[in-house]
Amino acid sequence: GARPSPCIMSEATRPLSKRPCPICKSPRQTDEYAPFCSARCRDKDLNRWFNDGYSVPGRPADPEEIAREQD
């Protein structure tokens, strides 16, 4: 038979992960900045989002198309 799916926990309630920081790859010592190891790495990640360091695959958004969808 099918096994039940594992419980999905939020980042705040999940026990400390053994996965390293996604920015600097160092081990995390606390969950305070999860999934990052520090405020510095958390802020570096946020900066990448603000400066288009990350992107979602697909064609660029058309401002006119977005405006039509909002009506």
Brief digest:
The chain is mainly α.
Task: Describe the 3D structure.
With 71 residues, the chain is an all-alpha fold. 28% of the residues lie in helices and 0% in strands. The protein is elongated.
* Helix-residue proportion: 25-40%
Overall shape: elongated
**Order of helical and strand elements:** HH
* Content-based structural category: mainly alpha
Unreliable segments of 5+ consecutive residues: none
Q: Number of helical runs?
A: 2
Question: What Rg is obtained from the alpha carbons, in whole angstroms?
Answer: 18 Å
Instruction: Tell me the total number of β-strands.
Output: 0
How widely separated are the two ends? 48 Å
Please summarize the sheet with the most strands. none
